[in-house]
Amino acid sequence: MITPVKQVNRFFMLALAPFVGLILCLLLLRPPLEPGGLMPTELSEDTITPRTQAISQELAGAKDAAIQTSSSIKRTTQLYNKTTSTMSTLVQKASAQADRPEKIYNKRISSKLGVPFERVDSDRLTIEMYRVNPGSYKGYAMKIKLKDPTAMQMALDSEPGRSETTMQAVKRNGAIAGINAGGFADSGGKRYPLSTTVMDGKYVNGFQASFKDLFFVGLNDTGKLVGGKFLDKNSLDRLQPQFGATFVPVLLQNGRKTTIPAKWKVSPKRAPRTVIGNYKDDQLLIIVVDGYNEGGSSGATLEELQGRLYKLGVIDAYNLDGGGSSSLILNNRVVNNPSDGSLRPVPTHFLFYK
């Protein structure tokens, strides 16, 4: 039986055994020393002095190298900062030069319109409102730059045959501006969009080939105005319209005046009008002309508007529904003077979002 004392003794023996072995090894393996000899780790003064000098020289060399490296890094940093600053300046100048033609063109077309009396500017669009008063009629021109293709949409009630005023459409959809759009046909006390109508990239009542003088006009997914006469669905599909409506007639195409049908020159001769067109930089121009009634004695003729749009540099232009339908809304107010005395409910409206 191992007593507690023996257990303690055994513990200390096991704990000290490695140290005892190490001491024995050092004693047994220690090399003999010759009398008067030097310890292995001792160095003579003749050996220490050259080595000290060599180390001193190496340290001095390292110091010089460090100083040169630090200076080189400093020069490189200065050069980098200067280069970065120069590149930044070049990028800014290049950007300014790239924007210059657009600004010059915009200044040129704006100068023909005069001085805007109202302006709306946001990340999505810029609207400038001008007065149009050549003497024979009065109206308003609204120039719009779409910075976001979705800043223009078309309002069409989901219930077939239902119509609303442009003001109602603007408020219902939270838009900043709006105009009446395509024509309509009355049936059974309801109003339906005329011919081919596209909403959210889909045909509302299928495609109908252009007949007589009807045309389609709308916006594609990149924010470009598209329109014209289309005899087959594939021709319109290639333009990828996101929305659009139909009316008559086309006024300008590819910067050239089109032939206005004789019927539309006199029926009515003068009337309130709403027209939409685009410049070559894809800005939109909308003109809404006032008139007292639809009897043909007040407002503008289509030939007058065609000539006006041509002089303003518009590339493509389309006549939208006019008469009592003509309406222009901006900032929650009716800008024009509707010939009916109040806004007329119609099926389609072009809306603009801030």
UniProtKB/TrEMBL annotation:
Superkingdom: Bacteria
Transmembrane segments: 12-29
Pfam families: NAGPA
UniProt KW keywords: Membrane, Transmembrane, Transmembrane helix
Keyword Transmembrane helix: yes
Ranges for domain Phosphodiester glycosidase: 173-352
This protein's name: Exopolysaccharide biosynthesis protein
